[in-house]
Amino acid sequence: MNTRKRLISVLLAGGLICAAVSPGESAVIVGSSSLIGTLDYSDTFTLTANGGAAERIDTVFPVSATGRIVENNYGNPSRTWRTGAWSLNQDSSAWATPQSPYPGTSGAGSDTGLTQHGTAGLDYGVQYGLRDEFVVQFDAVQVSDRIDITAGTKKDTIFAPGLTVFFKPAGNATEIGLFNGVPFSLANTGFSSPTIEGQWYNYAVRFDIPDSEIEIFIDEVSLGVVDLTTFNGGTHNTASNAFVNIGGATGATDNRLWTDNFQVGQVGSYIVPEPSSCFVFAALGLLGLIGYRLRRQR
Length: 298
Description:
The chain is 13% helix and 30% strand. It is built from two helices and 14 strands, in the order αββββββββββββββα. The model is unreliable at 1-24 and 272-296 (pLDDT under 50).
């Protein structure tokens, strides 16, 4: 193979590799995560009529005590979701409004069950305390204010000692921010968000408490790693494994939050490139081709 063909092959191979390792999916079925190795807790929110747990009845509000039991505990102590403020639905019964149009199926089980709430903000979680390094992951429709994931000291809230990652849609002054439980403590990571309001995405955070770092993912693509010992003077080195919470807050342009496929567990052996890696690979290949052309012209 001559040099020119070899360079083209490398460039094309690089593109194929990037396509293969950059999932680009909008939802992740429980048990299929590339980020989690061993699951500790998970919930698909599947309705009873579709094979889910007892008393998970479509559109009934509030969800009964039995229906609030976390679906899978993998031999760990049983946990229960919070009371009130949310219902279980499916794609066909999602209570969409002109203010919050439902985008339709996530492709990862929303047709058989998902959570829905219409309050300004809702976070719900489970008592955890099993690992010091773990991944929290779930699907949600991006809202105008935020989607969030918390590793903290109190259940069902971001307003307690701990660390919360805010996911805001593209175009916000702070697209990916960190919040330490103290009002007005939101700090900008500088990471860019690819999300658009009103669309399904998968959100995940790897919390590494011993090493004081987190890694942030959207659609299982890493946005980057934050060193909590140096970020904002160490003021956000506050993560706790006592509870893990998920949820979000709606804003002025919407009034519904839809979520699905909660899972938390041991970090898997994933290999996920930074969002810029594919572009770097392609650029190197392109520079090689340009260099080859210049040498041929001499």
